[in-house]
Amino acid sequence: GKDTGGINPNMVFRWHFSHAKNYDWTLFTDFGIGLLAGFDDVPNGGTSFNFLPRIGFGYTRAFDPTGGPDSTGPRWMVGVRWHHISNARIEGDERNPARDSLLFYVGITLPL
């Protein structure tokens, strides 16, 4: 189908379950939920309103590994997530062409 746009507020909760003693690196798992208000039906044959649950895991590494646990500097972050898009059958099974995807990402986290 054609391209479209939308508004997508979401929340992701992250738990860093393992780390180096000096917090040079961490391993984490995350999960979350989002809402998608599309300008058109997403995906085709669906509805313009969808839910976006997700779950995944990843790795962070400090730019400055000597910073220790009080370091507030930026960090590299890489991860993978299972990402789902569905309207939860709000208009029946026939209007719910759900999609599942793997999402790979790389980024930089900045402290507030």
Keywords, separated by commas or semicolons:
elongated; 112 residues; mainly beta; single chain
Write the layout of secondary structure elements.
Layout: E1 6-7, E2 10-19, E3 25-42, E4 47-51, E5 54-62, E6 75-85, E7 99-109
Antiparallel strand pairs: 1-3, 2-3, 3-4, 3-5, 5-6, 6-7
Stretches where pLDDT is under 50 for at least 5 consecutive residues are none
Count the beta strands.
7
> What percentage of residues falls in helices of 4 or more residues?
under 10%
Indicate the overall shape. Answer: elongated
User: Terminal Cα separation, in Å?
Assistant: 39 Å
**H and E order:** EEEEEEE
Structural class by secondary-structure content: mainly beta
Number of helices: 0
- Oligomer classification: single chain
Radius of gyration: 18 Å
What is the beta-strand fraction? over 45%
Give the biggest sheet: 7 strands, antiparallel
Mean pLDDT: 90
Structure summarized in a few sentences:
Strand 2 and strand 3 (25-42) form a beta hairpin. The protein has strands at residues 6-7, 10-19, 25-42, 47-51, 54-62, 75-85, 99-109.
